[in-house]
Design brief:
Elements lengths: L2 H10 L4 H13 L5 H8 L3 H13 L3 E5 L5 E5 L2 H26 L8 E4 L2 H14 L3 E6 L1 H16 L3 E6 L9 E4 L5 H8 L2 E7 L3 E8 L2 E7 L2 H24 L1 H10 L1 H7 L9
Helix pairs in contact: 1-2, 2-3, 2-4, 3-4, 6-7, 9-10, 10-11
Length: 276
C-alpha cells in the first residue's frame, strides 16, 4: 500500500488531510519531534501545524512530551492502538445510528428503484443486497462477478442465510447451494445474450439485475418487492430447470421442449435461447 493510500484510509476514518499527514510523519519519525520537524516531514504548513497537532492530541492520536531542551515535542499513539480505538468508536457510532436513524426515516412515497451505469456501482450495490439479507439469497452469477462478491456471500452463509446460486462457472467455486448452469451451457448462453447477466435478490424484497459485456455494465437496483419477487422466481425457476436436466437428462428435456404442445405454445419461437 502506498503512502497516498494510507493517507486516504485515515481520511475515510475521520482525520482531516493535515491530521493524516501529521500523524504519519510522527509514526515515521520513530522518536519525539517538534512542530517544526512535523511540518518539514509532512508538508503541513508551519502556520497550521500546531493547530493540527492540537487536533491529534484532542482525539488521542498524539501526545506532548518535553524534550531535552524543555521544548514541546510530540509522539504518536501507536498505530495498533489507534486502529483499535477507531474501530471501537466506529462500531459504537454504527450501533447508535442503527437505533436512531430508523426513527427519523420518513415512509417512502414509492418503492426505490435506480439505474446502475457502471460495473463498480453495480457490484457495490449487489454487495449491499447480499450484506442486508437475513433469510434467503437467490443469485444468478458468473465467475467474474462472484470473485468480487464471494466474501460477502460467504459471510451470508456464515450467518445462516439460505443461499441458492445459479452458477455459470466450472466446478463448485461459489458459496452456498450451488447449481451449475449446464442446460444450456454457459458459452451458449453468452453467445445468445451477448453479455453476462447478474441477478442478486435478498429476502425477496430488494434486487440488483444487470449485465456485463463489451467492457460496459448496466442494470438496476430495486426495493420494489414485486420486482424482487419476480427476479427471485427467475433464478429459482432456472435452478429448477438445471435440477430437472440432471435428473431426467438434457436429451429428454430437449424432446419435451420440441414436442409438448403446452411448452411449444408458451415458448413460441424462442427455442434455442429459452434456457438462458
Amino acid at each position: 500500500m502506498s503512502a497516498r493510500d494510507v493517507l486516504e484510509h485515515l481520511r475515510r476514518l475521520g482525520m482531516s488531510g493535515y491530521e493524516a499527514k501529521a500523524y504519519v510523519a510522527l509514526v515515521a519519525a520513530g522518536r519525539p519531534v517538534n512542530g517544526y520537524e512535523v511540518a518539514k516531514r509532512s508538508g503541513v504548513p508551519r502556520s497550521t501545524v500546531y493547530e493540527t497537532l492540537g487536533k491529534l492530541r484532542a482525539r488521542g492520536a498524539a501526545y506532548e512530551v518535553r524534550g531535552s531542551s524543555d521544548a514541546t515535542e510530540y509522539l504518536p499513539l501507536p498505530p495498533e492502538a489507534l486502529l483499535d480505538r477507531m474501530r471501537r468508536e466506529f462500531d459504537g457510532s454504527v450501533e447508535a445510528l442503527r437505533d436512531a436513524l430508523p426513527a427519523v426515516v420518513a415512509a417512502p412515497e414509492a418503492h426505490l428503484i435506480h439505474n446502475l451505469t457502471d460495473a463498480e456501482a453495480m457490484l457495490d450495490r449487489a454487495g449491499d443486497v447480499v450484506a442486508g439479507a437475513h433469510s434467503d439469497l437467490f443469485i444468478s452469477i458468473w465467475p467474474e462477478e462472484m470473485r468480487r462478491l464471494r466474501g460477502a456471500v460467504l459471510e451470508a452463509v456464515g450467518r445462516n442465510v439460505e443461499v441458492s446460486v445459479a452458477w455459470f462457472g466450472d466446478g463448485p467455486d461459489a458459496p452456498g447451494n450451488v447449481y451449475p448452469h449446464r442446460y444450456s451451457a454457459p458459452e451458449t448462453v453468452l453467445e445468445d445474450l451477448g453479455y453476462r447477466l447478474i441477478v442478486v435478490v435478498g429476502d425477496r424484497r430488494e434486487a440488483v439485475v444487470g449485465g456485463f459485456g463489451g467492457g460496459t455494465a448496466w442494470g438496476i437496483y430495486t426495493a420494489d418487492p414485486a420486482v424482487a419477487l419476480m427476479a427471485a422466481e427467475y433464478v429459482r425457476q432456472d435452478i429448477v430447470l438445471q435440477v430437472l436436466a440432471d435428473r431426467v437428462g438434457a436429451d429428454e428435456l430437449d424432446r419435451l421442449f420440441a414436442t409438448d404442445s403446452a411448452l411449444l405454445r408458451l415458448l413460441g419461437r424462442a427455442k434455442g435461447s429459452e434456457h438462458a
